[in-house]
Amino acid sequence: MQDQRQRIENRIASELARMAGLGAMLKGTVNQLRLGQKKRGGGERIAYLLTYKDKGNKTKSVYVPADRVPEATGMIENHRQASAILNRIVELNVELFKMK
Which residue from 4, 11, 56, 72 has the least number of CB within 10 angstroms? Predict the structure, then answer.
């Protein structure tokens, strides 16, 4: 029983270390907007927006420069991984709680 608890505690510590190593995070999605034709030179105008919900569950949008879109999507992926890790930690803590 004590050995089982130690294994669960070690897994929790391992998951916490993984989460700490993820780096910067953003919540939301990056959307591409087509703004129509350019006035000069032809082609289409494109903008990117990060859309997320704030504390009051209100939708917010932030402009993302085209050259920073890969950075923003990477930070969003970090948030998804952190959420999955957090869910695993909660499950492990429930197991520990049942043991006591």
Answer: 56
Long-range contacts of 85-88 (CB under 8 A, 24+ apart): 85/15, 85/18, 85/19, 86/19, 88/15
* Residue at token pair 């130690």: 6
**What's the pLDDT tens digit per position in 45-85?**
889 999 999 999 999 999 999 999 999 999 999 999 999 99
List pLDDT tens digits, range 14-57.
999 999 999 999 999 999 988 877 777 777 888 999 999 999 99
Alpha carbon 34 to its chain centroid, in Å, reads 25
Is 52 in contact with 27 (CB distance < 8 Å)? yes
CA dist., res. 87 & res. 98, Å (int): 17
Give domain limits for the chain: 2-99
Query: What's the pLDDT at 40?
Result: 72
Cα–Cα dist 100/83, whole Å: 26
